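Consider the tokenized backbone below.
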């Protein structure tokens, strides 16, 4: 494993990674699993599906350990939803690191097997993971990401602005949000004055949503 990375146990018993070069954990220390479920599954995917759709195209900024994909793909199996998932990750983790996350205990065994068998392939091409989920991991920086499709949901899971302010600039947000369809949903664990102003400027209706454990609020925004 990269010497700059080390595992930590979060408050809900699930693991996350600490990146010593960035100086931050990949997920909330108040609960990695709780945060992913609350911010991205509950406030993002399930919120979008309230319109009656059974299909969702998801774009994630900061694929990292794959936890957000795994909980979304697992949900798609139980609720008969189909997802096409694209993750942006400039520095993809090794499969050995992924295998040591322990996330297999939170999802179906078949999904975990298919994900780990196809992870390295998904770094180069779209792969069918289950009969209800497809995955592509774009190994690129945010500002050089490009796609021919429009997405229904953006999971914005970049490191915090205090560590990576460039990821939260209006330029970065504007670039990634141009791939979101009108009526599409943008969700992130963060909520700051600058973020709210940027999203309004970019033509979004913004909403304060109760945050995951350890955070009072988070942001959800809908593209007008």
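A designed sequence for it:
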């Amino acid at each position: 494993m990269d010497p700059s990375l080390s595992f930590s146990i979060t408050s809900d018993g699930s693991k996350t990674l600490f990146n010593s070069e960035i100086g931050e954990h990949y997920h909330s220390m108040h609960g990695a699993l709780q945060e992913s479920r609350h911010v991205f599954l509950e406030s993002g995917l399930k919120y979008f599906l309230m319109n009656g759709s059974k299909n969702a195209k998801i774009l994630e900024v900061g694929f990292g350990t794959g936890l957000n994909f795994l909980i979304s793909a697992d949900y798609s199996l139980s609720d008969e939803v189909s997802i096409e998932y694209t993750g942006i990750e400039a520095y993809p983790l090794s499969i050995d690191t992924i295998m040591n996350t322990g996330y297999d205990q939170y999802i179906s065994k078949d999904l975990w097997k298919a994900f780990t068998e196809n992870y390295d392939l998904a770094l180069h091409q779209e792969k069918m993971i289950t009969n209800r989920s497809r995955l592509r991991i774009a190994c690129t920086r945010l500002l050089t990401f490009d796609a021919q499709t429009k997405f229904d949901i953006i999971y914005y899971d970049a490191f915090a602005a205090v560590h990576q302010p460039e990821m939260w600039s209006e330029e970065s947000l504007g670039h990634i949000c141009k791939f979101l369809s009108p009526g599409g949903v943008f969700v992130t664990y963060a909520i700051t004055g600058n973020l709210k102003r940027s999203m309004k400027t970019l033509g979004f209706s913004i909403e304060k949503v109760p945050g995951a454990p350890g955070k009072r609020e988070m942001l959800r925004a809908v593209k007008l």
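The mean pLDDT is 97.
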